[in-house]
Amino acid sequence: MRHLIIFITLAVLIRPDTLRAQQEKTYMGFDDFMQFVLANNLELMIEEYEVSAAEAVLLASRVWEDPELEVIFPPFEDDEFSEFPANIAFEMEIPVDFFGVRRSRVRQARAEKFAAEAGLEDFLRYLRADAAGIYVEVITRQRILERMKENLDQLNQLTEINQTLFENGEIGEIDVLQTRLEARNFEAELFDARAEFSDMLAEVYVFIGGIPADSIVFEGVIEMEPPMTSYAQLRQTALEQRPDVIRAKRHQEAAHYAMRKARRERFPEISLIAGYHNEAAISPSPGIDAAYAGLIIPLKFSGFNRGAFQESQIHYQQAELLLQSVNLEVDTELKSAWEKFILLSQKRMLFTESILEDAERVRDAITYSYQRGEVSLLEALDAQRTMNEVYMNYYETLAEYAESIIRLSAVSGEWLVDFE
Q1: pTM
Q2: Architecture per CATH, 11-40+97-266+306-412
Q3: Per residue in 106-123, pLDDT tens?
Q4: Separation CA 180–CA 186 (nearest Å)
């Protein structure tokens, strides 16, 4: 397996010459990141062992009970035992599954194997959704940090402008100090945002199965078109195809066969026997030379104890309730996810690229008016903050909308994620 060591960083926070001197950048889009997660996620590898173990249990369940062979040879060869008869005997005991215990055991193991496979698919369902969510969060944080860096540059430019105006005697020193304080406070916020981004990388390391050393930059977009589906279609898909629903059905099936096996284990375990016996005679008695066959029927008084069967009944009833609980969970989760998707679809319509252009135009116009002395510094700073807030709301709304589709994919079991 190829081993790829990666590190997620921001090009906007590192000077280009420094970045080239330190390491080469590797760009990774959503599809590449998802493939890497599926190939290297350690928790996924652990889950895959559950399927392998279930397959081994199924293989073991097919084994027939071993027969027994009893052989008796003439043991006396010394002179003092020469008058005793020499005998030899063979007897074979073959257990026979008259009541289908083995068949029920195999069917139970097969159902549990299918349940383990559905459990792996259920884990993959959440892993894909979580990986997509991480991708959206990383891209969003990168955009926010880029925007914050640009905003800091603009505040620094405004500070330089005010310094020039102060030196020319057009404004007082207080305006210069206030602008500088605004820039320094925002720079502190930028450092906090960088720290939060670094903390987020720890979660990425878990998904990729290790701590990276090389540099990688996430690229791509998080914009998505509304999925072409309806609530009724998603509900039908979820109730029929969601892995946890399938797993609950398989557990119920396994519990059913376990109950049948427990019922049949109360009957005696009958075995066929066949043998041959040859024994020399002591004169004048005749010798014995005979072949025989028969049945061994244990007197299984323990079969009157219904404890094991009642336990299997309880597990079956529990499996039925679990299936009902999962179906209810599907309905509640899907309803909540659908309503949130609809609300965020409407909210997304409020934020378009034109609103960003409007915020830029307003900020530039007020800054120009400030330089001409037509508006106060507070108005200029307020326009700067407003523009920054518009950008933040725009990025966060896009991220929330994308995450609502990811959530809808997870709860419906149908993958609806398609980044433009």
Answers
A1: 0.76
A2: Up-down Bundle (1.20)
A3: 888 888 898 999 889 999
A4: 10
